[in-house]
Amino acid sequence: MKLILLGAPGAGKGTQAEIISEKYNIPTISTGNIIRAALKNGTEMGLKAKAYIDSGRLVPDDVVIGIIKERLAQDDCQNGFILDGFPRTIPQAEALDSMNIAIDAALSIEVADREIVKRMSGRRVCEKCGASYHTEFKKPQKDGICDACGSTLVIRKDDEPDTVIDRLDIYHKQTEPLKSYYKEAGKLLAVNGQSKVEDTTALVLAALSEI
Ligand code: AP5
Ligand code: MG
Predict the structure, then answer these.
(1) Smallest CA separation from ligand 1 atom 34, residue
(2) Burial code of 131-151, b = ≥16 C-beta within 10 A, e = fewer?
């Protein structure tokens, strides 16, 4: 299964990716998580990306395409993968096409903007593995601690309300056109992501079983 997850910031891409990844036994590649890890480790790429990521703007295409090329060449991706947060622009999608990797589907998780703003205010993420939680909708077993790896949960800097609104704007202008791009290629699937996490998972798994 070679899958792209599309959707606005906070639509639940990371949350659903975690579940699909376990079920299909394939890795999730989240460009957001890779960049945040680089930032935390103070690498050159991380430093270059900091101003973009903190303010919610897209990191330049060439940087992100370089990250993906390197990651997809690794052994664990050879039987499939989930791309969470890539591609996010038409040039990124074209770059992926030029890598000659046959994508099975691009699955769009659809959530209205007003719901997104609510979700982001309660999101907590693991500073180590990037797993997402929510203070109300997806609580960790132990307050402030990641169920998966035991590290501390933190608030993402780009989850401040003003930054979320800017990210949504960028999503509609630069990323949403990818739905038409993949529709034309006959690869687009869409599910409603407005209800509870488990309800969305049921829709996602049903859509994937059709591929
Ligand atoms: P990235 O990390 O990819 O952020 P994003 O796309 O903005 O998406 P999020 O991670 O915010 O949301 P999500 O859809 O994963 O939702 P989640 O599952 O956490 O990118 C961050 C930045 O990196 C970008 O702004 C850019 O600067 C840079 N970047 C990354 N990729 C790039 C690229 N390709 N090109 C250029 N720049 C790039 O869920 C959100 C919250 O809601 C959680 O708290 C969760 O628990 C909760 N939740 C989830 N589902 C439900 C539900 N059904 N009901 C209630 N709550 C729910
Ligand atoms: Mg995410």
Answers:
(1) 86
(2) bbbbeeebebeeeeebeeeee
Residue 1 structure tokens: 């299964």
- Which ligand is the nearest neighbour of the Cα of 10? 1
Rounded to two decimals, the pTM is 0.95
Residue 104 one-letter amino acid: D
Give the closest ligand to the alpha carbon of residue 118: 1
Return per-residue pLDDT of the chain as tens, 211 residues. 999 999 999 999 999 999 999 999 999 999 999 999 999 999 999 999 999 999 999 999 999 999 999 999 999 999 999 999 999 999 999 999 999 999 999 999 999 999 999 899 999 999 999 999 999 999 999 999 999 999 999 999 999 999 999 999 999 999 999 999 999 999 999 999 999 999 999 999 999 998 8
